[in-house]
Amino acid sequence: MIDSVDPLLKERLEKMGVTVDMRPGIPREELLRIVGNYDILVFRGRLKIDREVIDAGSSLRVLARYGVGLDNVDVEYAVKRGVAVVSAPNAPAQSVAELAIGLMVAVARRIPLLSERVKRGEWPKGRYIGVELSGRTLGVIGFGRIGRRVAQIARGIGMRILAHDIIDVSTDVKKLGGEQVPLETVLRESDVISLHVPLTPDTYKLLNAERLALVRDNAIIVNTSRGEVMDYEALLKHIDRLWGVGLDVLPEEPPRSQYLRQLLAHEKVVVTPHVGSETYEAMRRLAEELAMNIEEVVARLV
Ligand code: NAD
Questions:
Q1: Phi-psi map region of 17: left, alpha, beta (phi>0 left; psi -120 to 50 alpha)
Q2: Which of 35, 139, 230, 301 fits 190 for a cystine, CB–CB 3.0-4.6 Å?
Q3: Phi and psi for 28 in degrees, rounded to 5?
Q4: What's the half-sphere exposure (Cβ side, CA atoms, 13 Å) at 106?
Q5: Helix or strand (DSSP H, E) at 161
Q6: What confidence score (pLDDT) does residue 193 get?
Q7: What backbone phi and psi angles, to 5 degrees, belong to 286?
Q8: In this structure, what DSSP letter does residue 168 have?
Q9: Catalytic: which of 136, 164, 274, 285?
Q10: pLDDT tens, residue by residue, 41-52
C-alpha cells in the first residue's frame, strides 16, 4: 500500500492471507525500484500508475485504487498486460455529495469569509448579504452515483433540477421533478452548476472559456469531480461576474501556478484540498468495498 488508507483494509487483506507492506507516501522513484516484489498494489490518486510502473511490476496481478477515479491509471495497458484493475466506486458518493452541497451553501452565504472576519475580531454583520438555494435551478453535469445524490439532496432543499449526461438518465431525473437537457441548456439556465463527470479525454476542460461564457451572471459553480474538467484559467476571467465557486479539486494538487494561486486567493472562491471522500464513513466503506473487489478478482485468478 503506497498511500494512507483505513486500517480496516489491511485487516481485511490479512484475513484473506495477504501479507501487507505499508509504504504510505513512497516517492515514485522508490516505487519503481520495489514494485516488482508485489502481486497487489493499493494506491490513491497521488502517483501516476502508468506503463513504466506497470512494466516495473513484473509480478503484479491486481492494481487496486483506494477511491473512485481511475484517471491516474493506464487501465488499457494494465489489462493488456493481464493485470486486473479494481476500485471502490460506490463508497464515497454520499460524502462527496454532502461536500458539494456544503460548498454551495458556503459560497451562497460566504461562510468561510465571514468566519475568518469574526475570528480576526471584526463583526461584518450587514456587509455580506447572501442568497438562498431554495427556488433556484441546479444543473448537474454527470448524473452518475454522486451527481444524482447531489440532486436528491438539492431537491430536498427546494431546488429545481436540470441534468446533463451522455447516457439517458431522463427517467431518474424526472423522478426528482427535473429534466435531462443538453449541456448548453444546463449552462445557460442554471443558477448553480455542479460537476460530477469522470476525467476522460472527452471531459478534459469540458467547461472551457467558450462554455463558461454561457453561464449566467451571479451563478455558483461547484467542482468536486476533477480539476482538469474545468479551465481554471478561463474561470479566473469570469470570477468577478459569478456569485462564486466552490472547488474541492484542482488541476495541480497542491496548486503552484500563478493563475491558480490568484484564483484561490479571490474572495468569491471557497476551496478544500480534495477531501470529498475524507469522512470516517466513506473511508471505512472504501476499505470494505475495495477488499471485497480485490478478493473477487484474486478468486478468479487462482
Ligand atoms: P459515475 O461514473 O457514477 O458518474 C459519472 C457520470 O458522468 C455518468 O453517468 C457518465 O455517463 C457521465 N459522463 C461521462 N462522460 C460525460 C460527458 N462527457 N458529459 C456528460 N456526462 C458524462 O461517477 P461518480 O462516482 O459519480 O464520480 C463522479 C466524479 O467525482 C468523478 O470525476 C470522480 O473522479 C469524482 N470523485 C471525486 C471525489 C473527491 O474526493 N472530490 C471522490 C470521489 C469521486
A1: left
A2: 139
A3: -55, -45
A4: 22
A5: strand 160-164
A6: 99
A7: -60, -45
A8: -
A9: 274
A10: 999 999 999 999
Nearest CA to ligand 1 atom 43: 68
pTM: 0.94
Q: Is 274 a catalytic residue?
A: yes
Identify each DSSP E strand in 44-153 by its residue range.
62-65, 84-86, 137-141
- Ligand 1 centroid to residue 278 C-alpha, Å: 17
* Choice among 226, 228, 238, 289 that is catalytic: 226
Q: Cβ distance 266 to 239 under 8 Å? A: yes
User: Is the pLDDT at 275 greater than 80, yes or no?
Assistant: yes
Task: Work out which ligand 1 atom sits closest to the CA atom of 143.
Answer: 9
Is 188 buried (19+), middle (13-18) or exposed (0-12) by CB count in 10 A?
middle
d(CA 207, CA 192): 14
Which atom, in ligand 1's list, is nearest to the CA of 197? 7
Kind and range of the H or E run holding 267: none
